[in-house]
Give the backbone structure.
Amino acid sequence: MTAVADSGFPPWHREPPPPGSWRALFQWGDPDRSQPPAPAMVRLVMDLLAMSETDFQTPRRLGLGPVRLAPPRLAHTARRDLEAMLGAGNVQSDDFARLAAATGKGMLDLLRLRCGLPGPTPDAVLHPRDRHDLVRIVEYCARGGIAVLPRGGATSVTRALECPAGGVALDLRTHMDRILRFNETSATVTVQPGIRGPRLEAALNRAPDWLGAAHPHTCGHFPQSFEFSTVGGWVATRGAGQNSSYFGKIEDLVLAQEFVTPAGTIRTLEHPAAATGPDIDQILLGSEGTLGVLAEATLRVFRLPRAGPRCFSYLFPDWGEALEAAREVLQDGAGAPSLFRLSDPAETEAALARHGLRRPALDAFLGRLGLHPGRRCLLLGWTEGEAGFQRNLRRRIGRICRGRGAVPATGWPGKAWARSRFQEPYLRDHLLDFGVLVDTLECAASWDGLARVHRAVQDRCRARPGTACLAHVSHAYPQGASLYFVLLARLDTIPEYQAFQAGLLDVIRDQGAAMSHHHGIGRMAAPWLAAQLGPVQMDLLRAIKRQLDPQGIMNPGGTLGLD
Amino acid sequence: MTAVADSGFPPWHREPPPPGSWRALFQWGDPDRSQPPAPAMVRLVMDLLAMSETDFQTPRRLGLGPVRLAPPRLAHTARRDLEAMLGAGNVQSDDFARLAAATGKGMLDLLRLRCGLPGPTPDAVLHPRDRHDLVRIVEYCARGGIAVLPRGGATSVTRALECPAGGVALDLRTHMDRILRFNETSATVTVQPGIRGPRLEAALNRAPDWLGAAHPHTCGHFPQSFEFSTVGGWVATRGAGQNSSYFGKIEDLVLAQEFVTPAGTIRTLEHPAAATGPDIDQILLGSEGTLGVLAEATLRVFRLPRAGPRCFSYLFPDWGEALEAAREVLQDGAGAPSLFRLSDPAETEAALARHGLRRPALDAFLGRLGLHPGRRCLLLGWTEGEAGFQRNLRRRIGRICRGRGAVPATGWPGKAWARSRFQEPYLRDHLLDFGVLVDTLECAASWDGLARVHRAVQDRCRARPGTACLAHVSHAYPQGASLYFVLLARLDTIPEYQAFQAGLLDVIRDQGAAMSHHHGIGRMAAPWLAAQLGPVQMDLLRAIKRQLDPQGIMNPGGTLGLD
């Protein structure tokens, strides 16, 4: 086992992907920041999946060859019209651009690209310059029956970006990535949909310098895809940031929208609250490109208090007590922590192992505190907001946790997590090079059903050889929480993967949990969602679709089960 | 002026309304608790509207005669079918019951009834026994093209209850007023729509005894109509309780619904949060009876902390500083107060006068603190939640208010307000007996527009002789607040009233404020809402209506501008 520590083992593929290659498409993030897993991580994976060094001899299906697609089917006249509308430089139809626009970061996307089997792509990628371009494109495509797919950072893991009807993808990041208005008095920012997380957050953090504000602010929304995903993507999927227990999900953060549909443009009003009939924002939010294109979003923002966020962490003797404590914290009436991440025993052991903390002496010491390997659970969190509010909340959390037998585990786990919060996805590709799949799935359940959902998913994974399931509560509310599953499996063929995932989605549906808490539905979970909602609700959603998109051009082909 | 103190002046009409009379319909609340205004109140009204004792000589249009309507138009066969379906005792068609079902507590309702001019009524009032009855009624009426109007406590002030197409009104209070499930683990209660506020709240407060819970709870929703309005009415209108700044509006409190529509029954799922496409709950919420009938609602509930709510109050030197302080409190990051009621100078003087506090010595004392009559503003509020959270929040509020020149005004105003919180509506009828109209109107605006909206409404009122406008911020958010206007006017004819109200609705729309924050839209503000939303949004709402109610039987005739 010592060989793992050797720099030559496993023989990681460390070169940046060749430009234009399949790998350049599926490899996560910034190639310069891609780091193979640390030795402790490899040992952990080998332990969990009962693998040996032999399994890590030769990386395979690296996808280093150039992307090749069938030629686009867009009519010559359509291409010419679009070039006349947007400028030739804003209409792309090379293979790489087309496939990039239609490829998310779900495991199916990754497996397909590694096999050189691209999913359905658009015929062209357009780069609209402003809202007027959006209106023109949507009108033109509606007339011509050309499918339109708005795309954000393409970090979707739900097959929301596939283009089974071809058509055009809209890359909103190129020109529509600006902050349009910052209103400090009413604590809002209005942005274009293509702006990415870091740019928005940097501007808000430096609002006194950059936006002429009296106070620095934050957007409060930090999904794991933060560095690459866009506001438009957050809104389209009903995403959640890792700190949403305090700040709210994106549907809580959107105050108003300008939204271009084939039936016309909707501009909702920037009211703090209203009693003016059905909430149209909440119809458009989460519509995953099936109803129209977001042209502008006005988001609530938060003043950054002088006291930055503070970490806390506790180790619990078991999962049941930990869940009870989590529930009590959220129902206590002292406010919500921002990050609130409670790992199950499997994930807790994995986290300790990764950080080299599974040592006999430490285990013995923790054992004397009632914290035994395989049962103990790690809670880590942050508080946010005004300093006195944070102090009181941490005091209450401590009291509740200790009342459930937990032991404080210092601020270190929270800080370690913060350092690596956006790094995790980089590990997936390196492991998949050796046939180790690392996938995620998430759902939401009420407190009285949470342990049952967790157990059912775990049981399903245990029943499959060479499979491990690590889980945590990732976002918590007074009524329940989301469960986030990290799935490790020796598995690298598409049919095996599809069967594995379908089985887990069956479990989630059968348990009555929400089919997604923040990833969205896409084409992946659409059949399960349709079954859960039933015909009356599905028909209502389809009527909304017909009204706003009568020609059915907006992201057609199964997203949300609408066609 | 001393005559006012005399028990014989004004010659209030103190007798309980004769059974079956117009007055029995329009007089607010419990006849045994009806108290005429105190002498200080009468003096205040006389001052505000430049009235003299002569104006209070003779009460008029008391509506003591019996209600008489044109006979119902429901076909004999339909009546027989409904009786067979529900039992004869659950089908009423006497004049009083029919008019009661179609009459809210808006000023137009009151003026009409006083004139013996009933608005449009249903042909029968049905008392469904359970959800199966609701399904049967809706199916039957859809087949027969019979209009259906679900009603709650009939405290609507927006003309939502009129029945221009006749048909049947559903009184859900008679049999469908039960608590179905209480889930302490997930902090929810599931109720039938006809349950009234006090019954729900009493059961939750006594949850340890009545519902087998470990802790007492609260529903957190206390509209001024609390004693009479129903959960179904709260949900249908997107209402807000007086303490909603902490607990949330009803759309934040509804977790799931069972909702019977002509197209079938919708049951939304009890998920704490989800990313599963458009939010169907938020389509049904606020639909004001136009899409279907609520059969069950699952509401979030809150643990009652040992520390009860605590009052605070401050007097500010002027409205501008007070609004700034209110904004800072909500944006501070220390959590929100529950009650947060900031009176403008006019309302502040009225409140002081009503409580006999406009005395030269007190004015001189306050003047030395910079608090001058006609400029000073009263803020009163409560904190709610865990004791330490409350303590910290009150400390922060104090700091912010004092930083804006405010002076603490003790807990007395908050307690005095609490004592009379549900009493105010009782005064209206007594004053209207003497031709003094006391009406209310409310809207919501962002912080950067709030002062402008307030000024515009005030200016409009000032331009009308014999009119006064008292206003307060009634519910506050980080992005803005609602403005609640109490309008006093010498005015008792219907056309005068309609012109007056239309002028104010014009102002609210022109200022870009939300047409309602918590009263809803009804038929009253529908034309203004339609103008504000524009054709694309209105067409979307109409498409939703068509899908769920293709025959157009649900509350037809202009509510929300849908037909």
